[in-house]
Design goal:
three-stranded mixed sheet, globular, about 250 residues, alpha/beta, 8 helices, single chain
Length: about 250
Amino acid sequence: MNAEMEAGRLVATPFVPCDPAGIPPRAWLYGRHLIRRNVSVTVAPGGVGKSSLTIIQALELVTGRQFLGDCNAGPLRVWLFNLEDERSELDRRIAAAMKHYAIEPQDIGGRLFVDTGREQQLILANQIRDEVQIDKRLIENLKLQLTINEIDVLIVDPFVSSHRVNEMDNGKIDYVTKEWMRLAEHCGCAVELVHHTRKLNGAEATSDASRGASSLINAARSARVLQRLPDDELREAGVAGDGCTY
């Protein structure tokens, strides 16, 4: 069937009923957000703490410990690829989180991989005129690294920096997102894409307020949204200082 599909032919596959007891359950790795062989998305306005959250989430997964109450698998192997910050900033944030949660280097056990877009490019797709061109060489390199390092979760932060296509075009963003989905399927890992909201002008952040085309959210198995809490709710929760974000 694969050869026929590669030649441009489609084949209708008959459905064969099976025993429901033999169907494997969904392979959730982090609450009901990260799942093997699927793409998940985290959406939030700038400055709310997306990157800090994913760092803590990565540390939960590699240590197998619960800090935020959502880690349900581990210890796992995580590749955190931040496409904005420099290495020293990532080191600073990870060190702060490790100190706060009393994590020792041996607790990580070589299961955390961290890279920055300032040192290595991770641009999955480019747009030439009106055509999307996937970097097949990069895809194969990603497959190799995910496989030989036995990565369970790949976190890409932010999604917009992982491509160079029109982010307002649903068809093009769907095409790029499906490449991430195929990568997750091929390597048996969960892929987390961190994404910005558009300018909200005081409105509440929702998944529908994600920046650019909606096809990214529609293709994701799970989409979660981070909100900036009003000052009165922060004070009620016992968090000191106005303007804090959580």
